[in-house]
Structure formats: structure tokens, C-alpha cells
Amino acid sequence: MPDTPFAPVILGNEPGSFPHSVLAERHPAIIRQVRDAFPYGPGQHEALDELLHSCTEGTVEPLPAGAPDGDRWLAWGLAGHAGRSWYDVPWLWSESYFYRRLLEAVGWFGPGSWQGIDPFRPFKRAELDASETDEELAALDALQKLPEEERARALLHGSLWGNRADLGFRLSAEGAGDREPAPALVADDSETLWSLLPPAGNGTLVLVADNAGRELVPDLLLIAHLLAEGRAARAVLHVKPYPYYVSDATTADVVDALHRLRTAPGAAGAYGRALWAAMADGRLTVRTHPFWCAPLPYSAMPDDLRAEFAAATLTVVKGDLNYRRLVGDRLWPPTTAFRRTTAYFPGPVAALRTLKSDVITGLSAATESALVAAEGQRWRTGGTHALIQVDPSGEQQGQ
Ligand SMILES: O=P(O)(O)OC[C@@]1(O)O[C@H](CO)[C@@H](O)[C@@H]1O
């Protein structure tokens, strides 16, 4: 990520900034929570102590010799960052590497009996099993009486605001889950989004998921609706290859969410059964890719993903981190055109995101001034505002 004077890459080295607080406070809190949630042995405790020291006071260290993804991390910039403070390398890079090292500390990569044990699973499960999830699912019954367009809109907004369900965010934003969201979107290209997914279309929707539980459930409901109404003939759901940013969805989380839906009463159960059938006949596919946990912007995506997005009717990327990677993790002037930052993307792309970090593009000058007048800069990170932005054009000539 080379720096440009126009939009500097975000680092975590400015005390008082949001990125700094994530490195200095959120990461240690995550280590504490994971440590408390499992009966780990002395080797894991020692590795967690070492990680805590390294990420707060030490430097980025290389991966152990023989790490299965060692070459991949070298290609992703590890050699250039090793030996430097975690605060002085791009923030996106530090965060991704933190989750990679945390999984290693608890034995996720094996070999051994802790291989594949998700350290965030208790938190994700608790959310999926919460009574709030029952209430959200019960609300689907009333939706069935509405005309299709209204149902589609409600489910799109359910998926969008589901992005507030981010467990990592709640760790460092006290009371964030209870704060009322601001209803008006700071940018709303939903008409363009619907024009790309007309009823009786024959397209492929790709949805790049973000969080499990109370975000993934409404994502799945949206997919179920689009398939049932013929707005998409096929859907591909991309999830993370390993646990990441606390609540990011993996295939195991998709299975949990589908079980939860299928066994729910009323309309939710019907959606669940329809999704189950769509998995069986191939209209809904779950995929993953190592690049989803890469510390890089999407402009650096590999050719196989590029080809998949080029062939899709629409790719929807969910959440704050995906937004940062889509537009580049930079301090853009907020009125920078969204399409300017996504011109490299190989097909039509939409971002559904609640605002939980400093990165923002595509605001009108009037919207930016109104937000600043009301909240200073808090609107960028508070998780109470949301946007739907669409670039329908696909890769532009000369990019
Ligand atoms: O991608 P999500 O789940 O919407 O949000 C991820 C997040 O909580 O984590 C990052 C900071 O650690 C920020 O991008 C954001 O605050």
C-alpha cells in the first residue's frame, strides 16, 4: 500500500486515534477474553503472554519455521514489517497479523488436539442463541404480508444493520450495542442495487460475508429472498478460511446459522429450509479463500477471485473491514467519489456497511458538514451510521 499525499495509508501510531486504541486496548482485551473462555494449558498461556508483549511493546516477529502459510505471509509483506513496531506498519496489516498470531498461540494451526478449535466460538454461539435473535426471527412473520419490493427493502436493511453485530467492536465501544442507530443512511445507492437485481433476472450474486450470528442470519435471509423471488438465480457466500476479527463468519458459523434458521418456528423456519434446499441443489454455494484473511486491500486480489467477481452480476461486500479493504485503508477526503476508489473492481460491487472506522468515501459535502456539525468526528467510528454504496460499472478502461 504505497502512501499518497492525497490519502495517506492509516497507521496505528497516533495516540488517541481509533486505530491506536484498537492495537493498545482492543487486542489485549481480546487476548484476555479468549484466555478466560478456554481451559488452555501452560503452553498456550505462555504463547498468549508472548503475543501480548509482542503486540503492545515489542515488534512484529516472523512466523515460526515451517508455518504452513509462511510463504503466503512473505508475499503479503512480512519480511518488510518484521522487526518494526506493530504501531508503525499499516494498521490493516497489524490487525490481520494479530489474528494470525492469536490463532497460532492457541493451537489452531496444529498439529495437536487444539487444531481447528475456534477461540471465538463461545462468543459467536452466545449471540446466535440469544433471545434477541428469537425476536428478530419472529419479526419475519409480519413481513410476509408485505409486497415483494417492501420485503426486499426490509431484508436489505436487516442485512445492512446486522453489521452492528460485531463482537470485536463491542469490546472497545462500551454500550455500542444499545446505542440507537441513526435511521437515515449517509449514502444510499439502493435504487442502483435493485436495478442490478431485477425480479426474474438470471444473475449470480456474490456476497462477501462479515460477521457470524446476528449479521450472518439476516445476510442469509436476504439471499433466501433474492433466490426465491428470482432476483438472483445463484448465490455464492464467501466466508473466512479461519477465525478472524473475533466474530467473522467461517463455514462452521454458516452451518450453525442454517441450523438455527431451519429449526425456528414460522417464516424463519421456511427461509431456513429453502436455504438448506438451495445448498443441496447448488443454487447457494459457500466458498472461502486465503485472501479473505490477507492484510491487503482488495485492489491486490488474486486472479481467481478477480475472475469470479468479473463474472458475477453483483458482488455485495459486508461490513466495515471489507469496506476498508474495498476502498483502501486510507484517510480519504470524505467527498472522494466512491467509484474513484473502486474503479479497479472487476464487476459491479456494492458495499453495505455501518461506520466503525475512520475510512469513508462518497459523501456529499452537505452530508459531511451536517455530520461534523452534529458529532465532530465521532460519526466515523460510533457504529450508529450506515451506508449503501454501489459501483455498477465494473473495471474501467485504463485501470
Ligand atoms: O468489519 P466489521 O465487523 O464491520 O468491523 C470491524 C471492526 O470492528 O474492526 C476494525 C477495527 O478492529 C474496524 O474495521 C471495525 O471497527
Automatic annotation (TrEMBL):
InterPro entries: ARMT-1-like_metal-bd_sf, ARMT1, ARMT1-like_metal-bd. Gene3D superfamilies: 1.20.930.60, Uncharacterised protein PF01937, DUF89, domain 3 (3.40.50.10880). Its cofactor is Mn(2+). Keywords: Hydrolase, Manganese, Metal-binding. One of its GO terms (molecular function) is metal ion binding. Residues 23-367 form the Damage-control phosphatase ARMT1-like metal-binding domain. It catalyses: beta-D-fructose 6-phosphate = dihydroxyacetone + D-glyceraldehyde 3-phosphate; beta-D-fructose 1-phosphate + H2O = D-fructose + phosphate. It holds the Pfam family ARMT1-like_dom. One of its GO terms (biological process) is DNA damage response. Coiled coil: none annotated. Belongs to the damage-control phosphatase family. Sugar phosphate phosphatase III subfamily. This is Protein-glutamate O-methyltransferase family protein. It comes from Streptomyces actinomycinicus. The lineage of its organism: Bacteria, Bacillati, Actinomycetota, Actinomycetes, Kitasatosporales.
